[in-house]
Write a structure and sequence with these properties.
Distance between the termini: 23 Å
Low-confidence stretches: none
Helix content: 25-40%
Strand order of the largest sheet: 2-1-3-4
Structural class: alpha+beta
Order of helices and strands: EEHEEH
Number of domains: 1
Number of strands: 4
Largest sheet: 4 strands, antiparallel
Shape: globular
């Protein structure tokens, strides 16, 4: 079974870390890593970080975090635009 890659959107709440969104990037690791590196945010995670964007590999039902970055609301909005645009282009070109 091939590994799948995802970008997950997470928020720290009173109950702990909650994943509230997930983008399926498919099985191409090069595409997933390239897209993730184009996103905004900081690699410096602090205890005060509230929103994180994670690059995750899913293999045999298990999740393996590959990268994490902290962002603010403005960066998150821009990142969602970037992810959507790049996934749209990829899906159109695959057809």
């Amino acid at each position: 079974m091939a590994s799948k890659f995802e970008i997950s959107l997470n928020m720290k709440t009173l109950n702990g870390l909650e994943t509230y969104g997930c983008f399926d990037l498919g099985t191409n690791e090069e595409f997933a890593r390239s897209l993730y590196t184009s996103l905004h945010g900081s690699k410096d995670i602090s205890p005060d970080s509230v929103i994180t964007i994670d690059l995750v590999k899913r293999e045999n039902g298990l999740l393996f975090p590959l990268a994490i970055r902290h962002c603010n609301y403005h960066q998150l909005a821009e990142d969602v635009k970037i992810i959507t645009r790049e996934l749209f282009k990829r899906l159109i070109l695959e057809e």
